[in-house]
Amino acid sequence: MISSAPSTLRIAVAQLNPIVGDIDGNLAKAREARADAARHGADLVFFTELFIAGYPPEDLVLRTSFVTACEEAARQLAADTADGGPGVIVGVPLRRASGLHNSIIVADKGEIIAERHKYDLPNYGEFDEKRVFQASPEIQGPVNYRGIRLGIPICEDIWGDLGVCETLAESGAEILLVPNGSPYYRGKMDVRQQVVIRQVIESGLPILYANQIGGQDDLVFDGASFAIGADRSLAFQMSQFEEAVVVTTWKRGGDGGEGEGGWRCVDGPMSRIPDAEEADYRACMLGLRDYVNKNGFRNVVLGLSGGIDSAICAALAVDALGEERLHAIMLPYRYTSKESLTDAEACARALGCRYDIVPIAEPVEGFTRALSHLFEGTQEGITEENLQSRSRGVILMAVSNKFGSMVVTTGNKSEMSVGYATLYGDMNGGFNPIKDLYKMQVYKLAAWRNSTVPPGALGPSGEVIPKNIIAKAPSAELRENQTDQDSLPPYPVLDDILECLVEHEMSTEEIVARGHPRETVRRIEHLLYVAEYKRRQAAPGVKITRKNFGRDRRYPITNRYRDR
């Protein structure tokens, strides 16, 4: 290492919330972050993957005009560095002779001094980058930034087994800076840190992992940027689910001072990482907030039934948006119990939101009369039950149309898995914050929220979901004395079978070996498959588990396979 190279580098990690397609807004956000970093003495501002475009941009990058506009914005940000302040590393799509790339540019002193392209494109789960991007033709070497050789692998480049980090180390890199668009799922923090530690061991270099934050359709990016030192220890940890620009200080030398030796972080935050319930709740809250706000809805409306699912969705809406932006509507029919009426009102009162009652007897009976000549001679059954749900859906959508509010739909993953939901009824809506939570997880989060107000929540403290809602047997209340368990196994049993089938793709024999009756497993597998057509028409919702419906699990609708 040449003696004139600096021994200190102050890197500002920009853990921010870009909006896909908002090029001007993302550029403005980057400029504001750079100005803030400059005031705190940063030498370099490090942004996340495809920050200028927003991540993931999906087919937007197939539009030449979009890619051109992104590159122009990146050039404008690069030109800003002529002021003598910090340089930048920022993610941007670039079209070059080798193809369309997921790239970064490095800019300093008013110029783009380097660009690097992603080498390993992910094509699994929620990722399908091979569909729109071309991989870098080669593993590109380190970038010389003010005398320091920085390796900049992009997200998946450190997750695979292509030796990107090791190659960068062999090429002379001193620090590895990794821009990421890594979505949340339960336990993801541990997975990320293990991936980084493995690459630290293979490369012998410290790694700074910068991750974006924010909701994008059904994905939530949780931030939680961090660094692992060459000694495999946690060098710093940024907060989860919160935007921040944090300046970290790096020094060369084993003692952190002048002279030869590796780099280590000597100053950075050590933020607390939430436990599982808090993390899941905050992911749902952030996903709902960003979906509503980024898509320009003024407020939301939901049907508050007196049950656990609508209650927790109401709490999430108030926490995400504020009590004044939620309109809760109870839609009772002859089978709605007095208990449900009391519980729904108590929940709305505890949350402080607007609450109205709109009886549905007239529309239900109107539909029944209109269909009477077609249904003559048939027995009443699920069709008549579903007319109740569909009448509720029509009313909620009418309120949405009239007042510009988005309908929050409230079905949990257990129900969505087996089709225990009415298409064009309780499945109506624009977004579902609990779509990827199994029923028992909903209960856990409800109890957790009653004892804790999460950071950033706009809702009140105390018991916001009445204890009776949590304690009583769940019911759709579409007929006399109905409970969910009339049609389904107990939820602890159902959830375990579904997790085996969905998350782990286990065989019938493997699930039976866990102690579940064979006929129950076969029935749940059948219900899971035949409900696929419903799920294709369901509203998007926050990804919480390793395998959600839609992005991760993509089964055919027409499907005769059954595991025998």
UniProtKB/TrEMBL annotation:
Transmembrane segments: none annotated. L-glutamine binds at residues 124, 182, 188. Pfam families: CN_hydrolase, NAD_synthase. It catalyses: deamido-NAD(+) + L-glutamine + ATP + H2O = L-glutamate + AMP + diphosphate + NAD(+) + H(+). It is an enzyme of class 6 (ligase). ATP binds at residues 303-310, 410. Catalyzes the ATP-dependent amidation of deamido-NAD to form NAD. Uses L-glutamine as a nitrogen source. PANTHER family: GLUTAMINE-DEPENDENT NAD(+) SYNTHETASE, NH 3 /GLUTAMINE-DEPENDENT NAD + SYNTHETASE. NCBIfam families: nadE, PRK13981.1. In the C-terminal section; belongs to the NAD synthetase family. Belongs to the NAD synthetase family. This is Glutamine-dependent NAD(+) synthetase. It comes from Aquibium pacificus. The gene is nadE.
